[in-house]
Each structure stands twice: as structure tokens, then as C-alpha cells.
Amino acid sequence: MLTRREFCKQATLISLAPTVPAFLAQTAHSAVPLKDERILVVIQLDGGNDGLNTVVPYPDENYQRLRPKLAIGEGRVLRVSDSVGLNPAMRGAHELLSEGRLAIVQGVGYPNPSKSHEVSMAIWQTARFDSTEHRSYGWIGRALDEAPAANSDGPAALLVGKEALPVTLRGRKSIGATLANLDEMQVADASTLGTQREASVGDDLTAFMRRSRLDALLTAERLRQAAKPPGVVGTVPEGELGKRLALIARLIKSDFGARVYYAVQSGYDTHAFQREPHADLLRELSEGLRFFLDILKRDGLDDRVLVLAFSEFGRRAEENASAGTDHGTAGPVFLAGSKIKPGLHGAPPNLAALEKGDLAVNVDFRQVYQEVLANWLTLPPQGVLKGAFEPLNLF
Amino acid sequence: MPDSTNKSGDPWTPYIPSERLPWDLARVVHLHRRAGFAGSWTALQRDLSEGPKASLTRVLQGRMHRNRAVPEFEAVAASLADSGVSTTIPERLKAWWVFRMLFTPDPLGERLTLFWHNHFATSNLKVENLAAMRRQNEIFRESARAPFGELLRRVVKDAALLDWLDAPANRREHPNENLAREMMELFTLGVGNYTELDVQQGGRALTGWSYKDDGFREFPEQHDDGEKTILNRTGHWNGDDFVAMLLGHPATSIRLAKRLCELFMGNEGGAVTSAHIENLAEGLRIHQLDIGWAVERILRSEAFFAASNLRTRVLGPPEFVIGTVRAFEQFDPPPSTLLLAEWIARMGQDLFYPPNVFGWRGGRSWIDSRSLVARMNFAASFVQGATCHPSAPGNILGLIERTTGGSDREAGIRFLSQLLLGSEPTPDTRREFESAAGTRARLDADAARRLAICVLASPEAQLG
């Protein structure tokens, strides 16, 4: 398969049509995916997702007892097994499960959990427990530091959205960047730009610049074309997350070159009257996942992409007096993609054995990271995680 | 053989104009691009007629131009910085620096400030303290040409860097190597000139260094006063001893020589040989690592003006953006420094937010699809006046008429090429300019703008 760079070298032999956009429209159309690197997409569920009302232990009488207002009954859950079902808002995720494209790791956390959003998020983002290390480098940044030099000059990790670059993506060497919207990747007006008929060969700076400009125009055009209505796979789901995932899909399709994409979905800090807002968030997440994976599948890219969705903590087992839930500990982690071992992993939460009202941690999040690093991104996990953990066999 | 080699054996022999190396417009543009942020046509012509010696003295002493646009430059700049810090909006602080780059009488000083920002790459992403970031920036500026020891001591004993490299976490009971490692690898010696043991021991020497209320503080109770062996020398070293060892190590002079050559000599073209580096490093050692001395040595040299050193460097984002505004002299209505800072960020250099401890890699890595799209879009945005406040289309035709005495298409193409590239473009590129300028023999306002966009967005205009 042709890499983009090779393509551009070949393009030097082609006599280009006089108007760049027309020429690009053609080539961008005919040349399809050029890279074969595996890609990780991380979704950060911000605020502490209520795992018990996400992956619901519906037959457990303790669940019904602890959640008099918020419990979701057997009749309403989307059944996954004899012990758990999904929140009824998660139709998309339920379909992914039945198609074998979604894995749910239950009871994920870490020892001595912190209930501070900031501290717990930093722990998940850095895989470090000493607060003096919470602002330096993140687990993905460190992992990408170990990666061989990329063949593209763009950032190795990209946050899509308006948030600042999370520490997760900061490395000592590797480069993380943010992209709020696609305007930054679109040429506003190509009509006055040069329309060189022959791209230069050779490695001098001017030739390099010429090739790079062609490359940039090509990428911009590919992104424009990738914006075509998704058609058979439905429309972009409502909400910010759906838009961000759609943008990530376009970037992947356009061969943007980042190995890790990152998106944040906020609003999970549901202390009061959480039923509807929580369901809305889960709907947005699961429809977003479904849409994203379908679009990649349509474009033949699903084999290359894994999605990881996590939250900084779960919530307390017992609901509070305002029909909401307070900060807790363990919660589910989602992994989606066609290469994942689908279904439930880890033991379901045991509500009969709470620790001071909180769920016990069954799986260390570093076990999940280890799987993702070693078996998906094929980057050495030991240094990143400071040690080796029991395998989960997720792939 | 690079044409900068000469019979005297001194790789930095001074530049004297000759038939082979004439003092021509290409070299004047080169000087303004490499040591500043480009020049107006008037400044270029003045330097062309006054010759290299006077022009270089002006550059080195920081009196590149009389500042008509903003008379009270320092006072205005200071109030911009104050308000940037007090509003806690990072964009305001970026805009302050852009203002300085645009209007300073000492562009070389700002280029060196940018250079040190990259050398001691500290990001507000972690520091989250605009007052500290500004103070660090002022240190870079004030000590930009100082002996390196003065600069290093000031920077490493300042809150922004101490916070950035986790100095407060480096305590006797619980050492953190971050500061010691980056001091050795990035600020002084460079990789390969120390061992992991040196890093550990250096970290111990630095224990107790921290900051409080944004000022440097030493906490003796946190300091590990035990014996340490660093770079083969054993003693009860403290942080100051460690810094002194690094400054005295020959590898530091070599690393500084390399870094300065990266700044002024471009990244390609083979104008710099190991003889240049070694000779400059030796000179730095003799001159107490005096940066001002080294900068003058480079800029006044024949090597700097050698044909192999012309147009061999990818312009960094501020050089491209600020250089564009200054060359085109579009100051009425004034440019929005906030917007210019945003464009610079889109091109990959978000001021005060370097991507990691290594800073921006520079050279060809400035160029990727996203940054090039930003450069092309900036060209259009600037010429159409969207970067001004209030927005108004740039008067490119007026500039062409003032300079060439008319609106002749050929003269316009020649003028803009010389202003931005220092010379005539290649025939291929010239054809692109011609097509953008339209077919009429005289330019109208619109054709002049289309031509300007095409020149600015051309591959050649990204080099300097």
C-alpha cells in the first residue's frame, strides 16, 4: 500500500491539472487509506460515572434496596447476562455487545481510592499515585515517548475539543496537540494559491516545501471529502461527543497520522436528580460509539481502531437524599472495536460486600492500560505503569 | 567544500563584501530575517546603502528602527503585560509578547528571548501562573546576551522553572531527578556527557531548592548534605556547586555553540562544519560563555553571509507572522496582537506553551499539513485585513505604488519578491505570481492583494 509520502513522490511525475482543487478532488477520491498503524481513541467520562446505573446488577436485591428512587428494574434494563444489564438508554452499546464489538471491564479502580475529582482523575491520567507527579507526564505521553519516531510530522496524540491538553497526552518527548474544529484544517481560499504544474523532486528545502504544500492541500481536500453525509450508517448523534467522534473519524480517514485521539464527555457528576441527565449522557456515549464504529467499518478502518472509555471513579452504592449519587470508587471501563474480546470482564460488583459503603475494586486500571499498551499499541507498558500486572486477556 | 571556508583558517573570519559575496539586497534581507523579524523596504534600502558594518552594529545594539508607531514602547509594553497577568488570560500575555516582537527597537533581543524560551522550554500548561511566566520571560530578555552563567543561575532559581521541573518535590527523603536531568541534558551538557548516576547525585545536590510566594527559597531541612560524586568529583555538593560544575564543563560550551548555530545558521545547506562549532565553543570558554560575544561573532562572519547559508532555514511561526506585518508595514488600522498570537499558535508555536521539555524542534518540523494550512490561511487573512482591528483590507497597492512609483504589474511582482524573498523567484514560482496578479499590465487593488497572498503562501516565503 502506498504511504502518503510515497504518493506525493509519485505525484511529482504527474502533470497536475491547472486548478488545485479539481486535481485534488480526483486524487483524494481515488487514493484511500494510506497508513496501517493501530489507533487508540480515549473517551474521558468527566465527573465520575455512576457505574451501578450504567451496568446494572438488576436481580440483586441489595441494588433495589440501596437505590429506592434510582434503581432500574429488570423489565427496563437491556439484558446482558443473568446478573447485569445495561441502562435502557444504552441501546447502541447493547447492539455493539451483541455484535461482538464491545467489552466491559467491571469493578475497575485502584487501591486506596481518592474521592477528589482532581486527584482521582490525575491518578487515572498519569498512572502515578504521588501527587508531585500529577502534573508532569501522562500514561499515554510516556508510552508514546517509547514509540519509534513516527513517519508523520504531526502530533502523536490529539485531543479533539475545546479543552486544554490533558496531562494524559503529555510526554517528555512525544507531542500532544489539541484541535477544536476542522476549520483549522481547511484552506479558506485556494483560488490565489500557486498551482504548480510540476512538483519538485529532490531533497532541498524548496522542494520539501513544495511537496509539503501539495500534501497539505491533499489532506485538507481529503478531510473535506470525508465530511460527506454518512448515509447508510445514520446521522451524527446529537451532542458534543458525537460531533467530536465524527471529527476523529474524519481525521483517521484522512490519514491525519496521530496514534491516539482523545475526547472528553463532561457532566457525569450527578449529585441530584440524576436519572434523566445520566441517561442522556449514556445515550450520547453509546450512540456515539455505535456511530463511530459503524463509520469506521464502512470505510474499512475498524480493524485499526480501539476505543477506551473511562471515568475517574464510580459513585457510592447508596443513592443520596436528592435522588442523586455521591463520589464513589470502582466503575466499569468500556473497550470497543472489532479486535476486542467482547462481553463482560471482571467480576460483577458485589453489593453484599461494600467497603464503607463503596464498591470493592476488582480490577486495577493499570491492568487495562497494560492490555491496551502491550496488545493494542504494542508499546512497552512496564516503564509507563512502573511494574507488571496480571493480564486480563482482553484481546 | 563549503564556500565559507577560507585561507586564514578561522572559520568565523569577518565578512567583507567582495565580488563573490556582495552586499546585496539578498544579504540585507537575510540579515533582517535571521537576526530579527524582517524589515520594511525603507529599512532594507537604508542598510543596503550604509553597508554591513553599520547595519550589523544597529542590529547588535538593538536600534534597528526608530519607533514611530509606538513612541512609548517600553511603557506601553509593560502595561500590556500587567493587564495580561492581572486578567489571568494567557492570550493576553501572548499578545503582549507579539506586541514586543512587532514594535521593539531590538528585534534581535526578542529573537534571543524566543530562543531562550525554547532552550528552557517551560509551559504554562503546568505552571498555570502568568506572573511567573512573565517574570521568566523578562529574565530571558534581560539576560539574553549575558554570560550564560548569569542567565542559567537566574532561570533555575526562578519560580516558573522550579515549578515546571518539580523542584519542590525534590527532597532529601524523596529525591526527584527531573530538574537535575533536564539541567544536564537540555540546559547545559547535552546527552552523552553524563551518567545516570550523575543525574541521581545532581538531584541530591539540588534538594532543598524550591520557591515560595513566587520567589526562590532554599529549605535547608530538605537538603541532602551528604557526600556526592558528580562528574567524577566528590564532595558535599549543593545546588550552586552543581550549577558551577555544569557551567565549567566543556560540553556546555559545545552545546551552546550548536544551539546558536541552529538559530542563526539555518538547519541545512552545510554552512556549519564541526570546525565552526569547535572554534565557537572554544571562544565561548575564553569569554566566560558570553552569549553576546558569540552572537556578534556569528553575525559578523563570512560564514553567516555565505551563499550556502542563505535561505536555508524554515521560518518559525513568529518570524513568518511578525515578519509579514513588518515587511508590509500594515499598521493603520493596527494589527490585532491577540489574533497574530493565535495565528502563531495555529502554525505550531503556542507562546508560553512549548510542547514538552525539548521545546519546539524547529527546522522542517515546523511544516506539516495543519501548520501549512495555517500559513496559507494567514496569508489570505492578513492581506484581506482580517488580522487588523478594526478589520480593513490591506492597502497593498498603495505600498507598491509608493515604492515603485506606479502600479506596473511586472514592477509589482519584482518588488514583492525582493521584499519578502530578497531576490527574484524561480521561473516556476514566478509563473504562479504572474497568474495571481492577473493579465492586465497595471495592478488594481484587488490584483495587488491576490499577488500578495500568492507570494506569502508560496513555499519560498516560508524560508529565510
What is the topology?
The complex is a heterodimer of chains A (395) and B (464).
Chain A (H helix, E strand, L loop, with lengths): L3 H8 L8 H11 L8 E8 L8 E2 L4 H6 L11 E2 L5 E2 L4 H8 L3 E8 L7 H10 L12 H7 L11 E4 L15 E4 L25 H21 L14 H14 L6 E7 L8 H24 L6 E7 L19 E6 L6 E3 L17 E2 H12 L5 H4 L10
Parallel strand pairs in A: 1-8, 1-9, 5-11, 5-12, 6-7, 6-8
Antiparallel strand pairs in A: 2-4, 3-4, 5-10, 9-10
Helix pairs in contact in A: 2-7, 4-9, 8-9
Chain B lengths: L24 H11 L5 H10 L1 H10 L11 H15 L2 H14 L3 H13 L4 H4 L2 H13 L5 H9 L2 H6 L13 H10 L8 H11 L2 E4 L2 E4 L9 E3 L2 E3 L3 H10 L1 H15 L9 H13 L4 H9 L2 H4 L11 H12 L8 H10 L22 H15 L12 H9 L4 H13 L5 H11 L7 H12 L8
Antiparallel strand pairs in B: 1-2, 3-4
Tell me about this structure.
- The complex is a heterodimer of chains A (395) and B (464).
- Chain A has 395 residues and is an alpha/beta fold.
- Chain A contains eleven helices and twelve strands.
- In chain A, strands 1, 5, 6, 7, 8, 9, 10, 11 and 12 form a nine-stranded mixed β-sheet that branches. In chain A, strands 2-4-3 form a three-stranded antiparallel β-sheet.
- In chain A, helix 8 packs parallel to helix 9.
- By secondary structure, chain B is mostly helical.
- Chain B is built from 24 helices and four strands.
- Chain B has helices spanning 25-35, 41-50, 52-61, 73-87, 90-103, 107-119, 124-127, 130-142, 148-156, 159-164, 178-187, 196-206, 239-248, 250-264, 274-286, 291-299, 302-305, 317-328, 337-346, 369-383, 396-404, 409-421, 427-437, 445-456, and strands at residues 209-212, 215-218, 228-230, 233-235.
- In chain B, the strands form two sheets. In chain B, strands 1-2 form a two-stranded antiparallel ribbon. In chain B, strands 3-4 form a two-stranded antiparallel sheet.
- Chain B is globular, with a radius of gyration of 23 Å.
- Classes of the chains: A alpha/beta (395), B mainly alpha (464).
- The interface between A and B is large, with 47 and 45 residues.
